[in-house]
Design goal:
By secondary structure, this protein is α/β, with parallel strands linked by helices. Among the domains are: about 5-95, Immunoglobulins (Immunoglobulin-like); about 520-630, Golgi alpha-mannosidase II (Immunoglobulin-like, Sandwich), CATH 2.60.40. The longest helix is centred in the middle third of the chain and has 18 residues, at about 240-260. The radius of gyration is 26 Å and the shape is elongated.
Length: about 625
Amino acid sequence: MSHLWSSQAGAQPQPDNSVRFTLWAPHAKRPRVRVCSGDARGDHSLTAYPGGLGRFVAEVPNVRAGDDYLFVLDDERELPDPASRWQPHGVHGPSRVVDPAFGWTDQSWRGVSMDELVIYELHVGTFTPEGTFAAIVPHLAELKTLGVSAIELMPVAQFPGARNWGYDGVGLYAAQDSYGGPAELKKLVNAAHAAGLAVLLDVVYNHVGPEGNYLDAFGPYFTDVYRTPWGRAINYDGPDSDDVRRFVVGNALHWIGDYHIDGLRLDAVHSIFDFGARHVLEEIAAEAHALGERLGRSVVVIAESDLNDPRIVRSADEYGYGLDGQWSDDFHHAVHAALTGETRGYFADFGPVSAIASALREPFVYDGRYSMHRRRRHGAPSVGLPRKRFVVAIQNHDQVGNRAKGDRLSTLLAPEQLRLAAALLLLSPYVPLIFMGEEYGETNPFPYFVSHGDPELIEAVRAGRRGEFQSFDWDAEVPDPHDESVFRQATLDRPKAARPPHAQLLALYRDLLALRRDEPLMRPDGARLAVEAGERGWITLLRQPVDESPGASDALLALFNCSGEVADVPIPGSTARAWTMRLSTDAVGYGGNAELATDIVARGAEPDAPKRLATSERTLSVPPWTAALYMVSS
């Protein structure tokens, strides 16, 4: 399917000092464009586009970038452009013509591949006190120093008000005005590339927010055949759905082409319903990859899915959708339930440390097994799929923000448990995602917040949030999402990172990320894995070379004690091997007690040396809630 139409949707400045206005509006009669400012102020007729199907176009002279406009439907209803590039007056106001030209300096940038990704998820509005694109730029260098390779922005498509997670966006082509609008987003991407960081963008194609959503007035964007938890489902497979698909796929290409975005994270694809012969997810991935090839850079498409469905990342040749990656929540749930002891809601399916071991072996713990939470079998096997296809986290916006009070792991776990969780994440064989502030143990909450203008909608959101947490039985009052102070409390308190114990946790994250960067065996698919677990709460993760990898160690051995008691952990492999410690979360520099043996030596080689253990003993006593990484000494 050609997406030329959707790439030209909205207001496109032309070389002759005119603007071409393009609109798909099969529901409208006599549509016009009303220019609200500048030399061409007034109404201008739209004519039917050749071929019909509800497409209209007008070339209006003397319109410039910065002029505002509206579409007028049926001689009376003024509405913003569905493909508006900028809504400087909010979701209800007129749209603004944007000059797509920008002084890019990233011509040598080639993107980041999945196996190079370490993702840092951030919310623009609370990452800094200013809450803007521009305010992120001074922090890019410190994120690079931390060891991440990409920032992932929570949705920035125009949403109502100034406070929102972004999943209520309605202007899908417009960069949020309160964050700084389109020019500032381009400056952020350009600066990120200069700092050596990719930029991923969270986009929402399963629903559109309730306030400022005027798409129904233009065409059949929605369907009542399917339902989502957040609003009407988008019409991907019903009558007149071709142009809806063009609108959405074109939006993906818009961010990649016009903003140089390196990849997209597709929100909740389990609520994208399409029973046509070619799923819209496959179409988005194929078009995004093709555009990346034309631009000479890597572009990745990653899905959030609740289905544990390997088809999402299987290639089209294997009857899959061909996406580059997907979130795997089972890892999070296994770690969270084991370390916090929470067993309500979806955590009922997890709890034992053996579930963490299962998640380290394969990304889907539920691969067709019966789920008590769902009361049915869930998922399908992921065996044979590259580990770089799976993104895992111990915290993200959902798992923090969708708690009653938005409390982070740093307020739920002891410091040694927090260090262990970090090691489980960053020593895992998958693509890690770090939620902003996690790296230094931010304690400010990240609850849900909105700034709607409709009192009835505000009350509906309040009631919905209260009802959402009933299955978890959390003994906590749900903060008012509309209260501005709830939003303000979520802003990162970055000076914490320089003080104990936060500085020690930050040092651990930096060192673990440096290991991932420098050690070839730490790449998602850089080693053969052997995972073992014991009933006393220990896990061993042995990495051995797939082949002769230049610069790789002979083997890496991670030991995890996920219990509150000292664990005697069996040392896997030959007793002739000698292991040198690379890192322990119990080290003094990370806030621990340095109780763990530094080296595991071969039989007969100084077995009585301080802080050493001979492998002839076959076990190593690991302190509670501790992880350690060893490498073979050749």
